[in-house]
C-alpha cells in the first residue's frame, strides 16, 4: 500500500519569511493591511529595502518592542511601527501620489480571490449591505510595478482562492504578478499559472486539486 503524502502548510510567519526572501535589494515596497505587515519583521538584516505605508510613511522599520511603541507612529493597519534612519512621514495625499505615480516597485497585499489571468478581489465578499472598504487597494493594484498577493491557498470552507474567474467584486483586472500561499508560489503569466515553488511533501497533483484554475510546473 502506498502511503498518502503528508505536508504541513506554512504558518503566517513562515509565509511572511518566504515572501521577504524574494524581495530584491533596493526595492520600494508597500505592505498592505493584514498578513503583509508581518514581512516588515522578516527582512534580512543588511538588505536595503524601503518600506512604504499607505497612510504616509517611507522608510518604515520592523515592529517596536511593546514598551517602546510610539502611539503616533503607526502603519495603515493602525499597528505601531518604527522609522529607520532616513525615513520620513508625510501627508496622505503625497502617499497616494507615490502609489498612483508608479513609484513603488512592489506591493504586497492580501487576497480573497485571484483569477487565472491575474484579476484580484480583496476588498468585499459581495454581501448585501456590506459597506465599501476598498481603501487604497485599487490605487496600489494599478500603481505598483509588481503586485504580490499573500494569502491562504484555500478558504476556511476549503474552497480555492485561486480560481478560473473571480466571483467577488474586483479590486483590479489583470494586476497580479505572483501569488504566495501557505502551499506554493505561483506566477501569473500570459500562458497561465506557473508553479515556481511548493512546500515539502506536496505534489503538483495535490496542489491542483486544491486550486480552481489550471496549473503547470515551471
TrEMBL record:
Keywords: Transferase. Pfam families: CoA_trans. GO terms for molecular function: CoA-transferase activity. InterPro entries: 3-oxoacid_CoA-transf_B (IPR012791), CoA_trans_fam_I (IPR004165), CoA_transf_AS (IPR004164), NagB/RpiA_transferase-like (IPR037171). The keyword Repeat does not apply. SMART domains: CoA_trans (SM00882). Belongs to the 3-oxoacid CoA-transferase subunit B family. PANTHER family: KETOACID-COENZYME A TRANSFERASE, SUCCINYL-COA:3-KETOACID COENZYME A TRANSFERASE SUBUNIT B-RELATED. This is 3-oxoadipate CoA-transferase.
Amino acid at each position: 500500500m502506498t502511503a498518502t503524502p503528508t505536508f504541513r502548510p506554512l504558518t503566517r510567519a513562515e509565509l511572511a519569511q518566504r515572501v521577504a526572501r524574494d524581495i530584491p535589494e533596493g526595492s520600494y515596497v508597500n505592505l498592505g493591511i493584514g498578513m503583509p505587515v508581518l514581512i516588515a519583521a522578516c527582512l534580512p538584516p543588511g538588505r536595503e529595502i524601503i518600506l512604504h505605508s499607505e497612510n504616509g510613511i517611507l522608510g518604515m522599520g520592523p515592529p517596536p518592542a511593546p514598551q517602546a511603541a510610539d502611539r503616533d507612529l503607526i502603519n495603515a493597519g493602525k499597528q505601531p511601527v518604527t522609522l529607520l534612519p532616513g525615513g520620513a512621514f508625510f501627508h496622505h495625499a503625497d502617499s497616494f501620489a507615490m502609489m498612483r505615480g508608479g513609484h513603488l516597485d512592489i506591493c504586497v497585499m492580501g487576497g480573497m480571490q485571484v483569477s487565472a489571468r491575474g484579476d484580484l478581489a480583496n476588498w468585499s465578499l459581495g454581501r448585501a449591505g456590506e459597506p465599501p472598504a476598498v481603501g487604497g487597494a485599487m490605487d496600489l493594484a494599478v500603481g505598483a510595478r509588481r503586485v504580490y498577493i499573500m494569502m491562504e491557498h484555500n478558504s476556511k470552507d476549503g474552497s480555492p482562492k485561486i480560481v478560473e474567474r473571480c466571483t467577488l467584486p474586483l479590486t483590479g483586472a489583470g494586476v497580479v504578478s505572483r501569488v504566495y500561499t501557505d502551499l506554493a508560489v505561483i506566477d501569473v503569466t500570459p500562458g497561465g499559472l506557473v508553479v515556481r515553488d511548493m512546500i515539502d511533501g506536496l505534489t503538483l497533483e495535490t496542489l491542483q486539486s486544491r486550486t480552481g484554475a489550471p496549473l503547470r510546473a515551471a
